[in-house]
Amino acid sequence: MKGDSHQERGIISFHDFRRRRVKIGYGVMVVMLLAVAWTMIYPFLVTIFNAFKTKTDIYTFPPSLLPKDWVWTNFGEVLKYVDLGRHMTNTFLIFAGNMLFAVLFIGLAAFSLSHLKIPFRKGFTLFFMCTLMIPSATYMIPNYLNLQSLGLLNSYWAFWLPAAANAFWILLLKSFFDGIHKELFEAARMDGASEIRCFLQIAFPLSLPIIATILIFGFTQTWNEWYWAGVVITSPEKYPIASVIYKYVLSGETNNIQENVKFAILTIVMIPPLMIFAFLQKYIIRGVNLSSVKG
After folding, report:
1. Which of 28, 124, 167, 203 is the most exposed place for a label (fewest CB within 10 A)?
2. What is the CATH number of domain 77-294?
């Protein structure tokens, strides 16, 4: 019992769990969670298993989740229609530029709002909060016109520059920087450290959990971005992966790709986000825990 006292207590204590009503309610909650989880997992399973089916098996009625014959050649057929390596490289290049500008410019902006005595600091923060209320579609046309006047269309700068002005990421980093004790920066300034050095050597290492969360948000946004890419990119060889999926799988522009090959394309495209999330999962949990403690 002494060992149990050191364990983290859940939402239901052992004494409460002995009552019948609590057990029934707990059972209903577990069933509901499993049902919700199944509705989320089922589309992934259908996509993965259909990638190993023949075209005839996909249209078989009644449908079956598992394939009758596991066809591995569907993944080889993908290369005949789509150069996934090129377009994944394009997507990672866009993501790397987005994160570089986000950490450099957004990180410095958030650090300035949090720990520097700049004029109208509260006004800037309020302004960034107000921009979150504006629908993204309303400033898509101004962004396009600005990029057109700068001659940056059909280039990845059309992704990188807007990423450096993400108000949500600024406020997210600022809220995290607000929880860092100012004494750390004051001691560094007394030792002769500049503000840039305070950011790079103190604020940045301490904010790795929240930066990992931004990496997940940024990667998901870049990986799923197809509409903006279709607006600013005109060369098909520069398309990110989401634009290729829309063109070859969803829009029906090319009808010569069989359905099982389309599912194989979707299965391959699902792998990198899952790997990124699995790699950064512990940092995201740390960021959530630290944010909850500071809140």
Report:
1. 28
2. 1.10.3720.10
